[in-house]
Amino acid sequence: MRTAVLALALAAASATTIAHPGGAFAAAPTPVPKAPDDGADTPYLKAVKGAEEQTGLFTIWRKDGKIYLEVRDDQFDSDFLEHVVPANGLGEFDFESGEQFAFAARLVRFHLAGNTVALIWPHTLFMAKPGTPLATAVDESSADSVGAMLPVIAENTAGKSRLLDASALVGDVLNLASRLSDPTGTGGGQGPGAYHLDPSRTYFGPTRAFPENVMIEADQTFVSAAPNAINTVPDPRYVQMRVKYNFSQILSSPDYMPRLYDDRVGYWEVPRVAFDRDDERDNLRWNILRWNLQPSDPTQPLSPPKKPIVFYLDHSIPLEYRPAIRDGILEWNKAFERIGISGAIQVLDAPDDPSWDPDDIRNSVVRWVANSPSDFGAVAQIVWDPRTGEIFRGGVLLDSNLGRIAKTSERLLLNALSFPASAATAKSANTFKPLDDEAAFNNGLATESAFGSVALELMGAQDADKYVYERLKAVAMHEVGHDFGLSHNFIAHNAYTEDQIKSATFTEAHGTTASVMDYWAINLWPKGTSSGTWFPTTLGTYDDHVIHWGYAPVPGATTPQAEIPALSRWASAATDPRYAFAGDEDGYFDGGHAIDPRIAPFVLTNRPLDWCSTELDLGKGLIATLDRRYPQPQAPWDDERYAFLALLTRYSVCARTLTHYIAGEHLTRGRIGDPGIHSALSPVPRSEELRAYRLLDKYVFDDAAWRFSPATLQRLTYEEYIPLVNFGYDPTPRHDVPVVEIVGTLQDGALAAMYDPLVLQRLADMPTKAAPGTTMTLTDLFAWTRGAIFADIIAGRPGGSQIHRNLQRTYASLLAKMITNPEAGTPLDAQALARLDLLTLNGDLHRSLGAKSIDVQTRAHLLAISTDVERALDARTVIPTGISP
Q1: Is the omega angle on the peptide bond into residue 234 within 30 degrees of 0, that is, cis?
Q2: Alpha-carbon dihedral of residues 595, 597, 602, 605, nearest 10 degrees?
Q3: 39-43, 259-263, 727-731, range with greatest mean pLDDT
Q4: 430 DSSP 8-state letter
Q5: What stretch of H or E contains 240?
């Protein structure tokens, strides 16, 4: 997540002025008047006369549908936080109530400029010791941003404060107009149908004032000229988004000391550029995000904290799910107890007290959000000091679909079946928008949960209450881990063996993976095999380690730099698989970036190939038994369709994992001097790459892998009344399941992953880093794929299903494109091998076409490939002549 946090910081540092969209807000409900104190008839008293007063960090006045903010003179040019979040969602499209990362909390200052006040967003990325020439250089070399200009309505000379018109505070800070116009993030949303903020339909909602913050809600209407479906409610042309603008004190602790980041452990970080550290090569300073959690009595082996972290369970959470969520949050107390802090975390139900409010920044709240279809699963909410990284407010949003185990939407399941798209494959394959981290977690959760629910039912081992409890507890642990500043760890599964996670005794004590911050697969094995808990229900070995590294005090250290020797010593434990860390960027295999096949979400054990082989066989075996269980009498056919897609989607997870071994290299974050570290990278052995490829051939490329029962396929249709999508009727294009297209997407994606230019580059470079024959080469990739896909043509016995023919056409097109219009970065050696393969294939095709026994469809197929191949081999590049001046 370092990249994401840096992007947020850079956005804050370079934010441009946001102009108020214009127009006064429409009238809010009539406020309860409060008479001002008797006194002279000053402009200030005239302004507040008959207004409702709310006293807090700032004083809020409501009058005639307008909001006024009263700021004391001593509050000008002081640092506060502005935090803006949507108070409602759209029910889908990745718009969630309370979603905080669209506008991370940033520093803000009220600066008096004559008869107006500028809302300043100061930069926080660059730093130097105050009062030094370098500090002057930083100020002169960087720019702040102006968020709004607020007119001064009146001056309260007696109270030494000024009354400001708050209307300009609430422009489209979240850039909702753009997001609504392009909800899928595909780059559209321009033209006459684009949304814009309509001031005439916008008004102030509730306002609240607390000792440490004030909240102003703007009920903003965004308008589009796009045509509207008849009788559609709500009307998508006029979308009301309620947006909460929070201004708060920075609740930093005076005794808080930042802790510097180390990439051997996984924390979110705040980047700073320290210009006064010119004695080091890297002047970046990364402070981790964490709470100021200290024992009240450090001399005792176990002591309560000076101030515990308290989470409130909102009234929106269904009662039946609260025990699992509560237990998941409290599970983290075990890690803090190991560093001497007892009762570090408390969980309370939100009180039935009108004075308690979830918008009070002092409260950390867990809420339940209603979305259909499911968009995000769960997401952590934290507010931190952007200068130091100190967290002072947490929270979690939980998608209501987490409670619905058996009915994940068909659209979501189909999305999960796709690989990342690449120009290396034919563009006719279905492609889907890349998912962000939390959406990917939700997609994976849906896949694992749907698979588990169907598999357990088919195996007669279903225990719905236990299943729901374990899943929700694991989700709560994962998201609250983010609340403590922890990032994902996608190598944690590598710590445990198959025998260990099959043991209930082991998993109850150590989880199914070394970290709940992993994206965990369901721990499910074939019928008759012993199994531990389905999901991690307790912390793993890494979780204890990372909390110790981030929260345990370093004796005698009084500065962040003084902590480094001890922290580095603690971090060196990462060479042990039980404490290893690999973050998000290490798991981004899209575009060929990631290289270590051990680092992957939704995988289990330290031998992923063995695990995947077992899981793929399990999935195929379960599909063969569907007709025995689905659908039940008087149940819709859609039940079997759903079960089939649930099993097939999970099947694709391991298929995707197999491609990660091609050109693989094991990556370590360990440093020289750490136990057993001699190099940063080590190639995956050729034998392991070959095994992965053979599994890929068996389970993805081989035509036999896709021989489903015709009787089963004839039962896979949907019920007419499917869920509404985007407020309208949206049935799938076909009544049956498009198996050929789904499998084609899977196969094309596998080819795209292996033939991505970056992967080909690494294969081409491998002989420079490894002894001959010890690792895979470009020649191996082309030879193995040719043998897997064209084996029947090579043998002179062409045949196979439509799925197999489509795969052959796709691969031949990939080779042709590699020599006629290669993607940027494709190695010349790869282009040469592609040409050689096409020449060889052309000869094989002509021999097969000479056979008299082939049917009409096969002959047409061979002729089509032959034509494509010959055109590619005979392609000419036309270079236009220039015109002399």
Answers
A1: yes
A2: -150
A3: 259-263
A4: -
A5: strand 238-248
